[in-house]
Amino acid sequence: GLLLAAFSASVCSLLAITVDRYLSLYNALTYHSERTLGFTCAMVLLMWLLCLGVGLLPLLGWNCLRDQSSCSILRPVTKDNAAVLAVTFLLLFALMMQLYLQICKIAFRHAQQIAVQHQFIATAQATSTRKGLSTLSLILGTFALCWIPFAIYSLVADSSYPVVYTYCLALPATCNSLINPIIYAFRNPDIQKSLWLACCGCIPSTFSSRPRTSSDV
User: Fold this and answer.
1) Are 16 and 43 in contact (CB under 8 A)?
2) 216 domain residue, yes or no
3) Does residue 206 lie in a domain region?
């Protein structure tokens, strides 16, 4: 149950970030006024409650304790229920990829519009847009490499397969939640500043004073 809740939270968090980045570009003018701190906290709390509900499913009957032959590699989840979880994951990933394509289209369209009006501002905006897109590409690419093999294996394998295969594929999926913060720490100036303040109580003068834009990730 704890593993299901943690895995669900990892997937849902990345989906929420992708949706947030899409809305920040689609509603760039009203984004900061609509996405208040209270709204963000409420959405995070709702997401975690949903993930905890998924984690409770084995206790509510999603288990193979009465019929060991129906167990999946995600013991004690049954093969049918494991297939539902895997298909749901693949659908969520497809949704994230679709949103990412829309983000690319909107970001490049904004960059072109700004370039027509103000060449100097366009250079800074284009740099921010490229950095935001590259960060999101890195996050989604890492997510796909860590999760898709495990999801596909959950569809084709059963409890008769060696357990070592399950652990070898589940380990990268687990480590994905560790990799993402590292990527953000190296790519996001806001997180870098927070880390500097937390560790040494200062911010290096090398940091740019450029304000955060809706293209940043």
Assistant:
1) yes
2) no
3) no
Is position 165 within any domain? yes
Domain that holds residue 182: 1-200
pLDDT digits (tens, 9 = 90+) for 131-174: 667 777 888 888 889 888 888 888 888 777 888 888 888 888 88
With 0-12 / 13-18 / 19 or more C-beta atoms within 10 angstroms meaning exposed / middle / buried, residue 15 is: middle
Decide: 16 and 47 in contact? Cβ < 8 Å: yes
3-state secondary structure 121-174: HHHHHHHHHHHHHHHHHHHHHHHHHHHHHHHHHHHHCCCCCCHHHHHHHHHHHH
Whether the CB-CB separation of 86 and 169 falls below 8 Å is answered with no
Q: Spell 145-158 as b/e; 16+ CB within 10 A means b.
A: ebbbebbebbeebe
Block residue for tokens 């994905």: 176
